[in-house]
Amino acid sequence: MVYLLRKVESAEPLHIFRFLSSRFGLLPDLDQEFCDYGRGRVILQVLRCLHQHKGSSRTLTLLFVCACRCYGISARLVCGICGPTSVSLFAEVFDTESGSWKRVDMSSHTYDGERHEIAKVSGCVNKETLVTYVDFPSCEHRGYLYIRRQNKVFVYRKGEDLTVVAILLLPKDCENGVVLNVKEFPFEEAQLQLRLVQGKQKPDPKSSRREYVYVFGCNSFGWLSELTPKYIERFNDAYIKRGKTLHEWLLRSIDLLNDRVKKIPKASLVSLLEKAEAKWMDARVSNDPLPAHKSKFKNHPIYVLASQVGNSRIKRKDVAPIAFLKGEEVFLRSDFEDLKTCSGWLKVNRRVIENAKPIAMRTVYHRDKRMHVQTSLFSESQTVLIAPKQMCDGQIPTTDYDNVDATGEKFIPHGTIYVRSKNPDLLFRTVKLLQLYHKRAFSSYQKNDSSRPEIDGVVIRKCDLPALLKKYEELATEKSHADVEMTKESHRNFWRSVFKTMLADPPSVAQEHHRKIRKELSDHVSQFLNNLQDQS
After folding, report:
1. CB under 8 Å to 263, separation ≥6 — which residues?
2. What does DSSP assign to residue 242?
3. Closest-CA residue to 145 (of 159, 130, 132)
4. Distance (Å, rounded) from C-alpha 416 to C-alpha 463?
5. Same domain, residue pair 312 and 369
6. Are 42 and 187 found together in one domain?
7. Could you report the per-residue pLDDT of 375-414, keeping only the tens digit for each?
8. How far, in Å, CA of 87 to CA of 58, rounded?
9. CB-based contacts of 277, cutoff 8 Å, min separation 6
10. What DSSP element (H or E) covers 225?
């Protein structure tokens, strides 16, 4: 990597992009200087791997991000999800001159939306070329020992004792060389044919534009961020299709993953770019045009009508309407704060502070008591997060009814895992057969009685999870086979009863044919049932 970067014209993202595209995009021949540099057999193995995979866009994207980070340039990997099975990997690099992020897509050789033609290199390109080299079983370089055995390279760190650092698995090839021919790789040949077919179709720009559903970015410290508003025109429409519950879960998951990164000293400086970009994306989303009809405000992620707020939310201080629609005030959803009862905050794993004064009082109908009662509502600022419980002497903490409450956003005890199944009886049977220490758990309440929990899973130790999953899969397979056999047996019994009924009371076509029909049925029904039994 260091040797490759020495040949770049300057430490600029565009020059690195052009260098990698021209160097590996059309597979130039390996020159002798790569082989001679620093016992470059290891470098030659890496380059041969790139050549065998024809410089795939994923490999070049990773190489581009690594090169930028070696120069201290802020770069991150970006994963875009276009559909259920369509996932694309590209990169983003921060350009200090323009003060913005530039998208780099190695699959189409575009830099910030501009396509760059790959520079031509001298000599035969992308044709059959035999690369020969003298292979040695082992070599040393910078305190590391490299030993090759067939298609594996074992890397050891030299010291008082040899310690294994890595094991590189190389493609199986001949001992004296590698033939660089695209036809030897069916997957690459299929991709080439697909590109040729797509090129003949020549879709218009609108149809060829990708409609991303999710776009995520990750920098060198592991700081994860969602970049979907950057790659779609109307994020609010995608938000409505995504759903409020899924979107809130996604934001919480990203925050939990970034909590570990916040403890790194230098990560906060790098994440300033992500934080500034997040503010820009929030402003872009909030500046989307207002809906023209009142019905569009019901599930809108940004705007809300004053009549649609409800009694469970309260307006923040110094908040003014941003617009009017047919004489009704329009607010931002962020201008309102959720109000919940003590039990409501417990469902989201928060506890109301002692001696906290309620923000408001509401009269609601209590379904169990069948009467109207007064309830106190509190805001989130009047609550604290409930810390997860710890296992004491290997025992899982439970409620008064000897089960684990996993409703809402409650944390399960440390060192345990919550396993839920649509067939809880089979799960309970699995735990009983393995004799695992467990506690029954529930994540919801029964529809008929809101005070009774719906037991749908178990909480076990994390170390017991592999054995549980293996045994559960075996029992589920046996149960499915038994269900199939039961279905077949029910079909056999049905047809057996049909034919017996016909023998006892055959259809009366005519009086003179009664004996003939009975005799034919008696002769063939036994043979038919035997054949049916053999086929099943």
Report:
1. none
2. H
3. 159
4. 8
5. no
6. yes
7. 888 888 888 888 777 888 788 888 888 888 888 777 788 8
8. 11
9. 101, 225, 227
10. strand 224-226
- What CATH number has the domain bearing residue 307? 2.20.20.110
Distances (CA, A) of 66 to 17, 28, 56, 244, 272: 12, 21, 16, 36, 20
Query: Considering 189, 210, 231, which residue would you say is the last residue of a domain?
Result: 210
3 state SS of 322:
coil
d(CA 319, CA 313): 14
Write out the residue range of the structural domain in which residue 350 sits. 339-385
Q: Which two tokens stand for residue 141?
A: 């370089």
Quick one: 94 and 16 in the same domain? yes
User: Distance between CA 76 and CA 220 in Å, rounded?
Assistant: 7
Instruction: Measure the CA–CA gap between 223 and 259, rounded to whole angstroms.
Output: 9
Buried b (16+ CB within 10 A) or exposed e, 282-303: eeebeebeebeeeeebeebbbb
Separation of alpha carbons 36 and 468, rounded Å = 54
Q: What does the alpha-carbon distance between residue 28 and residue 25 come to, in Å, rounded to a whole number?
A: 8
Residue 142 has pLDDT above 60, yes or no: yes
Quick one: pLDDT band at residue 515, thresholds 50, 70, 90?
low
Pairing state between β 323-325 and 224-226 = unpaired
Q: Per the structure block, which two tokens stand in for 379? A: 């805001």
Q: For residue 121, how many C-alpha atoms fall within 13 Å in the half-sphere facing its CB?
A: 19
